[in-house]
Write the structure tokens for this entry.
Amino acid sequence: MLDRIDKIAEEAGRKIAEADSPAALDALRVEYLGRKGIVADLMKRMVALPAEQKPEAGQRINQLKQQTSKRLDERKAVLGVPAADAESIDYTVPGTRPRVGTEHPVNQTLNELLRISANLGFEIVRGQEVETERYNFEALNIPLEHPSRDAFDTFYLHDDVLLRSHTSPVQIRTMEERTPPLRIVAPGVVYRPDTVDASHFYMFNQLEGLMVGEDVTLADLKTVLHLLFQSLYGERVHVRLRPSFFPFTEPSAEFDISCPFCDSGCAVCKKKGWIEMGGCGMVDPKVFEAVGYDPERYTGFAFGLGVDRIAMAQHGIHDIRLMYENDIRFLSQF
Ligand code: DAH
């Protein structure tokens, strides 16, 4: 039996060394190590041996098995993957073009606004999306009875922790950390549990602006807004302020720009010639008090605008939901 095992080992070694293709090696693996192969056959014969010969025979058969498997692997590595037959490759078949992503339309608009703001001397500041009531409401002079503090209008996480409903808290965080003069813009997403429809989504992007100094005026506010939108849409754009109310500004206004897309009324401006852009005003003295600034010494302006709406107007997109469905067929158009 032992001689026989030696002979088989030697024969297997020779055959493997002579094999000249992976296919030949596969055939040898079946011949020696397969379920009905030579090694399996030896195992069966071993069972019939006298008890005292069994252990050694078993050991030798196992060695043969391991050795053969190792030799097959080694030979396979040497032979490698079959060399491609030069004739079988068609060099004229077009390649597969890798898919290249594009910047999201909202980010395109936001980045353009940030670039313009930076040119106007505004520093870009990032706040945080999870806020406390103090930053989202209280320090901004938004009283407890204000409707925006209702659970229907704000995503509360627990107690007084919530998803920010606007970017205005960044005003507070920045003023708390620094002293005037300061000129900042704060971009980012905000959250409101609005019923989703073509013009409402539970998450959207805002751009907040804040300038504080010793003699900042409403004229500065209007000038900055004017320059911002002229840079975005061209020299001909006008800005107008309409009196309004926000708890954190006094006086407050909503601002519109003249429609950059038409001369005489179009779908974007709904034939009005003006497009609503956002809110603005002079920082309320109560806000300065909340952050420890002297309201007798400093004045400032603030503004906040919706970025999604600007991007939608720019591209003629009529449904905000399209922006956030992550449908590549839609997004790759921009
Ligand atoms: N935070 C307001 C909103 O989300 C927008 C706003 C209005 C921001 C007036 C301002 C501002 O900074 O002065 O509705």
The chain has two domains: 2-88, 105-331. The radius of gyration is 37 Å.
